[in-house]
Every structure is written in C-alpha cells, then in structure tokens.
Amino acid sequence: MTALRKDSFWADLTAILSRKPVAPRESRHAREFAKKVYNRTGGVTPEMKRLYADLLENERRSREA
C-alpha cells in the first residue's frame, strides 16, 4: 500500500511540474475591437497595439476580480 502511495505522489508531482502554461484566450469583444481599429487605420499601428494590450489587461483583471 505504501508503494502505491509513493508512486502516486511522484506521478502527481511530475504531472504538476510538466504542465505547460496556458496562453490567455482572446474574447470576441477584443477580436472585434482589433478588427475595427485595423480597418480604420489601414494596418497595425503602435497605438493600436497599446490599446489592444490595455483591453486584454482590463479583461484579465475583470475575470480575476
């Protein structure tokens, strides 16, 4: 019985340590926003990148709260 517990412990530990980080998902709202700005400006601008990053950060914060 102890052997099972010991193996189970190591299996659980290696599973936890081998997990890959999960990339944040874009929301539909964020994608629509990016499309709208892209179409208005005719391409990617530094301001668009900043606004998009702010939008994703705000959505992340609202999910955590």
What does this structure look like?
Helices cover 75% and strands 0% of the residues. It has a domain at 26-64. The chain has three helices and no strands. It is mainly alpha-helical. The N and C termini lie far apart (43 Å). It is elongated, with a radius of gyration of 21 Å.
Please provide a brief summary of the model.
This protein has helices at 2-17, 28-41, 46-64. By secondary structure, it is mainly alpha-helical.
Fold blueprint:
Elements: H1 2-17, H2 28-41, H3 46-64
Helix pairs in contact: 2-3
Structural class: mainly alpha
**Helix content range:** over 70%
The number of helical segments is 3
Instruction: Give the total of beta strands.
Output: 0
Radius of gyration: 21 Å
Mean pLDDT: 76
Which consecutive residue ranges, at least 5 long each, have pLDDT under 50? none
User: How much beta, percentage-wise?
Assistant: under 5%
Shape: elongated
The major pleated sheet works out as:
none
Distance from N terminus to C terminus (CA atoms, Å) equals 43 Å
- Give the ordered list of helices and strands: HHH
